Amino acid sequence: MDLAVSVLIPSYNHAHYLVHALESVLVQSFSNWEAIVIDDGSDDETHQVVDKFEDPRIRYIYQDNQGLSAARNTGIRAAKAEIIALLDADDIWREDYLEVMVAPMIDHPEVVAVYCGFQYIDENGQDVGIPSLKVVPPDEFGDYFADHGNWLVPSGVVFRKVFAIEEGCFDESLRAVEDAYLWSKLCDHGPFVGIPLPLVGYRRHESNMSSDPQRMVSANYKILERYHGPPQGDSSTWTERKKNLYTRYFRSASIRYLAFGDVQMSAYYFLRMQEITPEAGTEIGIWRSLARVHLPIEVRNAPDAIEWQAAERDIKGLLAGLEKMRPDSSILDAHYSMIAGSAFLALADEAFRAKYFGCAFRWMWKAAKCDFKLLFTRPFWGTVVRGIGNLG
Predict the structure, then answer these.
(1) How far apart are CA 132 and CA 128, in angstroms?
(2) Interval 247-258 mean pLDDT
């Protein structure tokens, strides 16, 4: 039988995690695989770790340090199978991962890639937070991905080698989100099938690239610019899709920088968002996200997770940063009172959901003081209704 899948495991100084990644491959219920460890110039025990595994299906390739994309591309070129599975050295798979993921590609030749949900794990491999199980219908994946961005983790995607080669593999000029860029191109070749199961243990730790806001924000900008052009000129002349995508990009950047503790950059990107879509800053959703930025991402959506003093500190800090920018922005100045009121309304809404009624009523009062016009809006009364419902 021909080899079904090549598992690519790039590793740079992750020997202490690599052993667990390889063990998770060895216990797979699906056995028709090869695993290629691409050592990207490590100066730790990576080679020795691989040598301890005597399974002939495991290969080792060393290269001078060139970055994650280059390491993955080395693995793609060396792969003997036509289906590629990525496994980052600090992640692990559930034992039925390959069996579940490869089946749709074997049974349906038109399927270009398969992705699944994941479970955050900590440095000790323990589950943290709730699983991410988001999937969309295959025929909607391309448009949804373009409009809403990347929610996939590389270790939870398998894809056909032929199309990756055709698209030039991973873009080595990108230092982050290079996986999202490749997925956006592979979408043109056929459907992505989603599996709503947490088959991946996705490790969060201090060395994750996603903890670097500048790298992530810059890489996302490059992708947007390539597809839709730079955010220049009068935004009223842009297509609706370009406006929505750049609004979401600046929104995400503001949230990411506030999570990193950089209030000045968070305020800068918030203003850029506001300049494109003036009503965006008054949406409760963005302020609810901003209220949770002090939480680790793996528990950010968990109920009752908010630390209220930290949330209020973050919100007040960002509002203070925006207030400093008011004199230089007519759009921000015109909407500031409603923006501030919406911020406190979002805090109240979160507090009502968690049944912290004292905080909730205090923030409702602050919201009304910032802009009494909030009293006549649907979000305000929606918050009131939720609050009354939670009193029972």
Answers:
(1) 11
(2) 93
Domain span at 12: 5-203
Q: What is the C-alpha separation between 152 and 117, in angstroms, rounded?
A: 8
pLDDT of residue 205: 65
Joined tokens for residue 127: 């589950």
Q: Give yes or no: residues 233 and 109 share one domain.
A: no
Sheet holding 33-40, edge to edge: 58-63, 33-40, 5-11, 83-86, 157-160, 113-121, 192-203, 92-93
The DSSP symbol for 30 reads: -
- Element (H or E) spanning 106, and its range? helix 97-107
Count of structural domains, the chain: 2
Each residue's pLDDT tens digit, 8-57: 999 999 999 999 999 999 999 999 999 999 999 999 999 999 999 989 99
**How far apart (Å, rounded) are the C-alpha atoms in residues 89 and 101?**
19
Final residue belonging to a domain, choices 153, 182, 203 = 203
Q: CA 184 to CA 150: how far, in whole Å?
A: 9
Buried b (16+ CB within 10 A) or exposed e, 302-324: eeeebebeebbebbebbbebbee
Query: Do 237 and 142 fall into the same domain?
Result: no
Partner residues linked to 61 by β-bridges: 38
| Entry pTM | 0.80
39 backbone dihedrals φ, ψ, rounded to 5°: -85, 110
**CATH number of the domain enclosing 85:** 3.90.550.10
Last residue of a domain, one of 182, 203, 224: 203
The angle that helices 330-353 and 378-391 make with each other, rounded to 10 degrees, is 10
pLDDT of 135-155, one tens digit each?
999 999 988 887 778 899 999
Distance CA 338, CA 282 (A): 6
Return the structure tokens found at 185.
Answer: 């191109």
